[in-house]
Structure formats: C-alpha cells, structure tokens
C-alpha cells in the first residue's frame, strides 16, 4: 500500500476526534446548567446506541437534522423514565451543539500519526457531521491545518456511504481512487463506502470488536504506520 498511496482520507468523529468522551463531558455540563437530575452514566448508556441509530437513519435520509437532534434526546430521556418537556429538549439540543466543540479530546496518537503522515501524503477529511460543528471541532483541537481538503455531507447533499460524497472528495483533492485510502470507524459508512468506489481502506476498530470482515484493521491510530 505504501508505494501506491498518495492521499489519505480520514473520518473525523470516532476516528480522530474522541466523540464519546467529548459528548459525555458536554452532557455533564448542559444537564447541570438546565437542572436536569439524572445519573450521567445511566443516561449515556442509553443515549449512545440511540444516537448511533439516529445517525444511521440520517445517513439513509430517513430523518432530518432537526429530527435527529430532538429524537435522540427524547428517546434517551424516555428510556430512563425522566420526563423532560419538549421546549427543554429543544433548548438542550441547541446547547449540546454549542458546547460540544468546547471539549476537544482527540484519540490517543492522533497528533503523532498526523505528523507522521503529513510528510508522506496529502491528508483530507470526509465527514457526515454537521458542517458548522465539524469546522469548530478541528480548529479548536488544532488539527484543521493538517488537511488539504474537507468534504462534508452537507456541501455534497448526500452522506457516506453514498459514492457521490467519495467521488466529490476525490475530485476536490485531485486524487484517483487507486492512489487513495480511507480511514474510519464505521464499516458501513467509511470502509464499505470507500471500498465500493475502488479506494483502499483501513478500519479503525477502536472498540476492538474484531469483526471478521476482510478489511485491513487497526485498534490504535499509531498502528496505521504498519500500512502507510
């Protein structure tokens, strides 16, 4: 792979930017501000799979952005039998986005691997996250300048794994699929989506689920050096 790759495309959330950690800290802050008394660990335990479900629906164009932001909170509160009025949920959904980018923990090894790769390859981002939030995340975490192009689903009008977003990103980067690799945590959105248009892939399996899927796999970012 090292000999033919010229462009490295990263997902952002759950790949470089530690979404789970930053999201947990955000909820701790905004639930306290709004006086909602819940056990944070209990809330997060139900919220995280609900959030993943809503993002899958969002990728599949089955829910809108406002429906995602409201629905994931509503379902999480219902799941732990905490009654929160709709207008408060709306306030929380706005506060969540506002505060989320004030926490900027990266996965261990992020800066190390970016510094290693930037001397050898052109680096890029392809993300399904909301455009305004993703830009703030990268700037506040001091990683924006590593990337030559940023492709966001909102600018393309489709989401990973739709081939259009990968083709848009390749065109923006002036890159060919066969000289490009996609690195991300989602088998469906990142790995299968990129593979289907001819890109190389590396699955960042940070949860160490060890799915037997036939794709190149790492459980730490530093392990990418084994391939690139």
Automatic annotation (TrEMBL):
Pfam families in the record: Hydrolase
Q: Check the record and name the PANTHER family matching this protein.
A: PTHR47478, PYRIMIDINE 5'-NUCLEOTIDASE YJJG
Q: What is this protein called?
A: YjjG family noncanonical pyrimidine nucleotidase
Q: Which organism is it from?
A: Winogradskyella aquimaris
Which InterPro entries is this protein grouped with?
HAD-like_sf (IPR036412), HAD-SF_hydro_IA (IPR006439), HAD-SF_hydro_IA_YjjG/PynA (IPR011951), HAD_sf (IPR023214), PGP-like_dom2 (IPR023198), Pyrimidine_5'-ntase_YjjG (IPR052550)
């Amino acid at each position: 792979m090292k000999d033919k790759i010229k462009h490295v495309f990263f997902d952002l959330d759950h790949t470089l930017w530690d979404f789970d950690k930053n999201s947990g800290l955000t909820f701790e802050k905004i639930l306290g501000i709004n006086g909602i008394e819940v056990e944070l660990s209990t809330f997060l335990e139900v919220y995280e799979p609900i959030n993943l479900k809503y993002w899958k629906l969002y990728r599949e164009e089955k829910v809108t952005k406002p429906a995602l932001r409201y629905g994931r909170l509503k379902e999480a509160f219902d799941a732990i039998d905490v009654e929160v009025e709709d207008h408060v949920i709306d306030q929380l959904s706005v506060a969540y986005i506002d505060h989320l980018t004030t926490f900027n923990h990266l996965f261990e090894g992020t800066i190390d691997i970016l510094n290693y790769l930037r001397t050898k390859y052109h680096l890029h981002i392809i993300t399904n996250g909301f455009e305004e939030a993703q830009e703030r995340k990268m700037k506040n975490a001091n990683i924006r300048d590593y990337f030559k192009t940023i492709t966001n689903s909102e600018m393309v009008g489709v989401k990973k794994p739709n081939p259009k977003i990968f083709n848009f990103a390749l065109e923006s980067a002036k890159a060919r699929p066969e000289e490009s690799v996609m690195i991300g945590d989602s088998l469906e959105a990142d790995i299968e989506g990129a593979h289907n248009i001819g890109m190389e892939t590396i699955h960042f399996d940070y949860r160490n689920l060890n799915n037997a899927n036939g794709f190149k796999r790492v459980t730490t970012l530093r392990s990418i050096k084994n391939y690139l």
